[in-house]
Sequence to fold (361 residues):
Amino acid sequence: MATFNFAAGPAALPGPVLKTIQGEILDWRETGQSVLEMPFTGEAFACILGETEADLRQLLDIPENYCVLFMQGGAYGHSALVPLNLFKHRSRADYVETGHWSKRAIGEARRYGTVSIAASGADCDFTRIPPRETWRLDPEAAYCHITTNETGEGLQFHWLPDIGDVPLVADMTSDFLSRPLDVSRFGLIYLSAQKNVGTSGLTLVIARQDLLDGALPETPAVFDYARQAKNNSKVNTPPTFPVYVAGLVLKWIKQQGGLKEMEHRNRRKSQDLYAAIDGSGFYRCQVAVEDRSWMNVCFNLPSPSLEDAFLAAAEARGLLNLKGHSAIGGIRASLYNAIPQEAVEALIAFMDGFAQEPAGG
Ligand SMILES: *Cc1c(COP(=O)(O)O)cnc(C)c1O
Fold:
């Protein structure tokens, strides 16, 4: 039976990437060594890291004055490391609260300084992104933090806020590389790789170099961004295998036609699924139409017991990992770059059938 994996993360990888990993796992490019057993200081890994960074810079057209760091810790870890690295001169920052992951980032930042909630979607139960004109920004803040895609609630920024001279910092874990991006609009971007860039263990940080002029003294050496930048992400052992996987994913994106093509595909997949939900009279998506995520399509059935039946019937048909975030519930179909249009079509066909005959599923 063909299966389609709609997991939120770690998420599906492109089939050709998995095949390449399988083919190269015992011997990488005839070096006589597996990627799993390469010294991180050696020539072979230098080649992998160099190609990966070069491909990322090319895909996103990353300006010269930005560094790219290949780190560990996860996006949740880096939601604490960002204030540790940016609070040296001013220990206060603005945060836009849009859902689960921005709330977690706020909780971490509060350990290290003063967090001001510039705007919040709490009063509408995180069903829309607070419009820019409602934000109350501190012109003296060290930075302003947003979460470009809320993976749990399924809402996404489809615009970039203009915030003047204060650096914009973004957790971009669940929509990075899903479409073209103007990196120069940001002071710093961080993300875990396991949603749309590869597998778990790798956290990417892209930062404007002038912002990295000294972390708080309590910052661990391996999590000091300036130090990692100076040492080419090799202050300690970088996550070598996940870097390799990310490199293969970047090459796959390039072969597919780059970020414009990803945008085209992702827009279409999500539009088709939202149209099926809205037209069903059975499924419901609470998120405001203009803020709906292209990456994580979240919806409900008329009751939690129907949702359980839906998940069981979907799994029996090979439609896997559709359960919503544990803190939020409902159904969530994650449609990252690796999810083909045919997966969405199979899901829609199943949903149409289930809506006709929910008990028989
Ligand atoms: C998954 C996710 C995280 C957490 O990533 P970890 O690698 O588990 O730390 C943080 N932010 C967003 C937006 C996410 O989707």
